Amino acid sequence: MTRVIVHDDPESAAAAAAELLAGRIALRLRSAGVAHVALAGGTTPRRVYERIGPLVPEWDAVHLWLGDERVVPAEHPDANVAMVRASLLRGLAPPPVLHPVQTGLGADGACDAYEAALAALVPRHASGMPQLDIALLGLGEDGHTASLFPNAPALNVTGRACVVVRDAPKPPPVRITLTLPVLGAARERIVLATGREKAMAAARAVGAPTPEVPASLLPRLHTTFVLDAAAAAFVDAGADDA
Ligand code: 6PG
To answer: In this model, does residue 167 exceed pLDDT 90?
Structure first.
């Protein structure tokens, strides 16, 4: 059963997601001494990244990955890593270990390099996939998550932790995304969505799994949706009202 937590507004939802993410990171740091975390891109999680700094005791044992990246120069305003640097990393000392997608290598080169880095640094899941500790994910209005878009061939990729997307309906079109096998292998997933424009996608994401709604293909177990009331408008009353 997917866990759904609903907060009144975007700010409280972001604060809750920051506390949940920080708590999971702290747990892994205590039990394993290291934490591997995939971060969401887009705009919603920025509020989380601006809050979470003081909530984690020792960032220098935290490895930060990107759940997806646009294939643009690292300092480009569309780059997810630029948003992470400007929000989460800002003033953080000692900083976490950030693993940007090396988009300067071009899409295929960047994907292969990212795949190799994940394989080299992240412990393996029984499936053979790198096992991230936590994946923080966003949700698009069409139900996409990371850069896994509705009915896209990327949804069927197995045996790879990341894949190139060349026709993303959400610009920019060329992206690198983690795949469902590696997102599914993560110990924990947190999906943060706010705003009425996400309400239909959120309701379908917690409903029956379908490639029309990629977020619905995430495992139900150890997946928590953190929503504000607007994004939860069509989610069944079973949600935990926070
Ligand atoms: C990206 C994101 C993408 C995002 C959703 C929601 O690179 O675009 O990873 O999956 O999370 O599109 O975006 P917003 O938070 O901006 O609504």
So the answer is: yes
DSSP secondary structure letters along 161-191: SEEEES--SSSSS-EEEE-HHHHHHSSEEEE
pLDDT digits 0-9 by tens, 193-219 = 999 999 999 999 999 999 999 999 999
Q: Is the CB of 146 under 6 A from ligand 1?
A: yes
Task: Using a pLDDT cut of 90, give the percent of the chain over it.
Answer: 94
Residue range 1-29, pLDDT digits in tens: 789 999 999 999 999 999 999 999 999 99
Q: Based on C-alpha coordinates, what's the Rg of the chain?
A: 16
**40 alpha carbon – ligand 1 mean position (Å):** 7
The angle at the Cα of 135, spanning 239 to 133, to the nearest 5 degrees, equals: 110
Pocket test for ligand 1, best of 43, 165, 192 (most atoms within 8 A of CB): 43
Are 39 and 192 in contact by the 8 Å Cβ rule? The answer is no
Q: Is 68 close to ligand 1, i.e. is its CB under 6 Å away?
A: yes
- What is residue 87's three-state secondary structure? helix
Question: Which of 68, 72, 179 has most ligand 1 atoms within 8 Å of its beta carbon, as the pocket-test mutant?
Answer: 68
Does ligand 1 have an atom closer than 6 angstroms to the CB of 2? no
Angle (CA) 103-77-82 rounded to 5° is 65
Rounded-to-integer distance, Cα 149 and Cα 213, Å = 8
**Is residue 240 pLDDT above 70, yes or no?**
no
